[in-house]
């Protein structure tokens, strides 16, 4: 038997080498090697090894720590291998052969296809499409079955407040039951199915109940580790094509004080002053309109339950695919919402509070998410509509996620500075606007991916801004012609019509707003949305200032020239918090004519403006003389997290679904609150 030495490695290198770190190809075949001969300390010096031939030896398994970070091609033919899971330590492996290992079966082929995300050739055959199916479709089906099994047979067995012993007991029962009862695919793959089911179930328990994975479980892939990206190397970029995870942390150890569980809000009459509209008396607490359903801590850095610092910024409800081209806003959204903050993007079922999927990039801080629906050609040449989620943030990169396939299929390096917000055109499904700290708003055509997820993105337009754009909105009556943006130093409008030759364009108009006794263009606009086809709602950095104004009466489309100053025709002003804190943004629910805005105390101010819209629609509609008070203010319940109160809570964003069934509240303390309207 030949023992492996430094001299042997140098001699067996192709071509022969004088230093281990220079070896890229190594032939160690026909040496009667056993597993114990593969010394991890010696192999760890082969930092640039790309091709390794270990055929015709006596290996029964691989050591777990060979540390060959650049290995691409591995030949293990004619050995005695019994297990393949240790091969996951070679994440860049593209070609693998292990023919004539009598103990390996079809189940092992499926295991390596799942574990090795870059594998293209297995035993000389192209397995790209099959591997994609195993990693995405198979995983999605099994995850659904595992979750359903828990919900049906085990969820009610666990008390609301459980002990470590109770968790340990139910964990053992659940793992045994789920591996026995969850069946999928042909019987010839039953071993692979049990292996994946156990892995998925362990992940589910770890994320849902905080159960640590035991050392006696099967080795698991840690998908997060390969998601720390680099914008430099194509090789590293390939490693970042991360799968969307399926579970995340739920604050099961958060309790709501029972006396405050009464759907707290206050209801203002038109004559109430602000101090009364925020009151939280027992009488007002009984006047119920919504109840808090769930409080989730699903964006924690490193899944830490102690993380109350991660800021949550953006959320948007997923469109329903069969809603008739989304013509009816009431039926155009599901109860699934995408949220972002910190290093992750989550998909949440608002009714159950389940975190359905989680996409994570360790070096990113996500600021914005947006949905579009693309008609894609699937494998059998049929066309089918699929929802695509775009996510962007501090790195200036847009991630494109095919949610149904649990797959981030591409990225657009849109800006060199952070992206503050993104939005899709409502009329052109592939048109995406990105607003960046580089003082530019770019329009992209993201293209439509083919069945292998090949796509081509192109930049169509660049809008130059005078200051950092914070919020953007397309004008509903002409979304292909005008875009409005709230910026650090004002509110601006651009002509975005693509038949104009100019690819880089300055703003066409800047709007003036009241400032004490005069009008000014210089103010931060950190909230911007349309309440209907004409009424714009914008929030200023001026304390307590939310304006409603008319787009059609403010913007003079017939005027000539760019960078014109126009006075916003104010219809009304909403009564809001007196804080001068910025970046607490607002949103609207046009179908129900509601405006929402959170404050610096964790409260949500809600304005039902349906009784005002008729008057505003009149050409002679005049400004309301007094501020419109909130219809309701939902106050933050008293939460206890591990027996302690969370720190000061700011509501960064609050969004309702189109039917105003759910209200999602994003905070500065890494808590997503979901309310349900009664």
Automatic annotation (TrEMBL):
InterPro entries in UniProt: Leu-rich_rpt, LRR_dom_sf, LRR_LRWD1_dom, LRWD1, WD40/YVTN_repeat-like_dom_sf, WD40_repeat_CS, WD40_repeat_dom_sf, WD40_rpt
Top-level taxon in the UniProt lineage: Eukaryota
SMART domains: WD40
Gene Ontology cellular-component terms listed: centrosome; chromosome, telomeric region; kinetochore; nuclear origin of replication recognition complex
Domain (Leucine-rich repeat and WD repeat-containing protein 1 LRR) ranges: 7-200
MF terms (GO), sorted A to Z: chromatin binding
Annotated region described as Disordered, given as residue ranges: 215-239, 258-290
Segments forming a coiled coil: none
SUPFAM superfamilies: L domain-like, WD40 repeat-like
Keywords: Centromere, Chromatin regulator, Chromosome, Cytoplasm, Cytoskeleton, DNA replication, Kinetochore, Leucine-rich repeat, Nucleus, Repeat, Telomere, WD repeat
Pfam families: LRR_LRWD1 (PF23211), WD_LRWD1 (PF23215)
Localization of this protein: Chromosome, Centromere, Kinetochore; Chromosome, Telomere; Cytoplasm, Cytoskeleton, Microtubule organizing center, Centrosome; Nucleus
Family: Belongs to the LRWD1 family.
Protein name: Leucine-rich repeat and WD repeat-containing protein 1
Lineage per the UniProt record: Eukaryota, Metazoa, Chordata, Craniata, Vertebrata
Name of the encoding gene: Lrwd1
